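# nightly structure sweep
# worker-07 picked up a monomer target from the shared queue
# config: single-sequence mode, recycle default, output format = structure tokens
# input follows
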Amino acid sequence: MQANQVKMEDIVSLCKRRGFVFQSSEIYGGLAGFYDYGPLGVELVNNLKKLWWQTMVGEHDNIFGLDGAIIQNPLLWEASGHIAGFTDPMVEDLVTHKRYRADHLAGVDSTDLSELTKLLKDQRSPEGNPISPPRYFNMMMKTWLGAIEGDVATAYLRPETAGAIFTNFINVKETMRAKIPFGIAQIGKAFRNEISPRDFIFRVRELEQMEMQYFINPKAQEQTYQAWREFAWNFLVNKVGIQEKNLSWHEHSEQERAHYAKAAHDIYFNFPQGPKELWGTHNRTDYDLANHSRLSGKDLTYFDEINGEKYLPYVIESSVGVGRMLLAVLVDSYSVENINSESRTVLKLKPVIAPYKVAVSPLLKNKPELVTFAQKIYQQLKQKFVMVMWDDNGNIGKRYRRQDEIGTPFCITIDFESLDNQSVTVRHRDTTKQERVPADKLVDILNKELKK
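# output follows
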């Protein structure tokens, strides 16, 4: 797979122009690795999260939700291996003291220090200065608890959301009377002190994850692992609507795999910068529960009353970043087309995730009778579909182009014929086809179309 033909600068421009994503603290020059979601971005992100939650938790009787705290007891991160091993290779510009990812500077997908040292021999920084030998850099973000700043009060912003899931394994099992296999799902923020955040919202320092940890009998690891790989692929293609041509599987080699993983597969998306990780499925074995049991002194084994077995469960992880999914959706749906010798930019979003489902417009905003009729339709649709936009700015062609660019599936126009026969024009985003429908049938028609 090559880099997607859609250019990153086009996506960045669209996001700023139409209110999907803004640079955080922009009026102060911004802050690398941090972004704010604008009005359209919030709606699209919330729709993606709602769809994932409904599919992951709502459609499974044995998967339960959790919302863990961002700051946990530091011992949790010691048990998980993050304090000792959550590292990236880096080099330092010996003049400016800026830090850079060593693997990025070397242009390889490797974190082996000896290999990177050889590759970066005689290499200079992007500023042209000499650099230090590669070394590991811990990406945990520190904070302090209490009134005195010091090591005794050191804590960390969580670098991943899984920690609270493992420490709540017993709580969820007991309160929900859960029997293995069962899963715990969570959507939440994580923080990583990335050396060189880049590629817009692909690699950031504040991110949001949607993940599920599935606790199983070790004997079921292979079939369960394959099942959750299939789940991830099917969700992206069938639920979100991403084109399969933009997706591929990448199996982690032994050198690539995280310290806790027995097996790891990523779904790669064809981003503008090339195929990169979107969704990971990992076999974490009993690494997490074993370490938390050892360090906490709590027995985290599971007793199967039916089979008389006692064992430490294995865990199959299914994890995807919200920001990366948002970026993938924008790239996948972005299209520039020529219609009647005119160019239009359109986001061909699946209706279920589109920020606005419908836009309502009076043909002319200076005709009170049209505006009154249109407002009546608008209020009716707001009660049914919530995210409905009122749009009377500019001529009707400009309104259509604006709605195309933000991915609104349907535009409803009220004209003078509407006053005569109580009908409206429905315009379809993807085909630009227009049809007259009775106003009293509009809700039923849209309900049917929006479920596609």
